[in-house]
Amino acid sequence: MRIIRSIRVLQVWRRKYATQRIGFVPTMGALHEGHLSLIRRARKHCSTVVVSIFVNPLQFSPSEDLSRYPRPVKSDQQLCREAGVDVLFCPSSEEFYPKDFQTTVKVNRLSQSWEGTFRPTHFEGVTTVVTKLLCLVRPNRSYFGQKDYQQLLVIKHMVKDLNIDTKIVRCSTIRESDGLALSSRNRYLSENQRRQAISLSVALRQGVQSIKHGQTNVQMIQNSMQKILEKFSGVRIEYLAVCDANTLSTLPRVKGEVVLVGAIQIGKVRLIDNMLAKGP
After folding, report:
1. Cβ pair 189, 197 in contact under 8 A
2. How much is the average pLDDT of 4-22?
3. What average pLDDT does this structure show over 98-122?
4. Residue pLDDT, tens place only, 157-179
5. Would you put residue 184 in left (φ > 0), alpha (ψ -120 to 50) or beta?
6. Whole-prediction pTM
7. CA angle 18, 22, 25 (to 5 degrees)
């Protein structure tokens, strides 16, 4: 595995491998089984796999502690080697955003609701960093997890709008045995908080089951999910909704494919999750 830290070196490498079928997995490090599942998917379909590790300062709000984000560099590198990654791109913030950097990318409507309400600068940071990475790596396929569902939709729309020549591949959320979606933030949970953390996946699963059993009234589905969350002490609901799976707009009734989305706060740890369902 080759580790590249310089943008110029990456550009030289990419020109050399212009004919390769490249799969790309962008990450912020602190790798877990969810990331590794993306890498394995890329390894299966592409001749060359590139992974980036970059803790992107643009997607952190002033109230979020950028310095607190985990950076287990050595173990991340070892996991990438074991997973068969060909190139690991690890630029510094100074390399990626020089002092005169002043260009950002914004997807308007899709980024305004849900996560965009609670983290108003987040998606502009995400779309800016992903645009830069896609321009540098120029992958045939780019792999993103369903766990960050709104982010996935925002990036797909951005790629379409800007005619970026890559296929965005959605990969299923990887979960613990009790249903908790894997996240780098889970390591911040205390033992008691970890027990509370499953509440979100339990609530979303209840919503999915309600739809499978024929319930189409969105308000009733949301109420049933909220009642489950309220049974767990120490859990604060930020949002919980049933939305159109393509636009994230709210619905009065379930029709076709929908996504159930939620975000909760447990102490200082913020967790998000989602599940897809199909109605009549």
Report:
1. yes
2. 96
3. 96
4. 999 999 999 999 999 999 999 99
5. alpha
6. 0.96
7. 135
Q: Which amino acid is at 275?
A: M
CATH topology of domain 184-275: Pantoate--beta-alanine Ligase; Chain: A,domain 2 (3.30.1300)
Long-range CB pairs of 115-124 (<8 Å, 24+ gap) are 115/150, 115/151, 115/263, 115/272, 116/150, 117/239, 118/238, 118/239, 118/263, 119/61, 119/64, 120/61, 121/58, 121/59, 121/61, 122/59, 122/61, 123/59, 123/150, 123/151, 123/154, 124/58
The amino acid occupying position 91 is: P
Q: Is 213 a catalytic residue?
A: no
Question: Whole-angstrom Cα distance, residue 32 to residue 105?
Answer: 28
The Cα–Cα gap between 95 and 80 comes to: 22
- Residue among 32, 35, 157, 213 flagged as catalytic: 35
The rounded distance, in Å, linking the Cα atoms of 81 and 85 is: 6
Per-domain boundaries in the chain? 2-171, 184-275
CATH topology of domain 2-171: Rossmann fold (3.40.50)
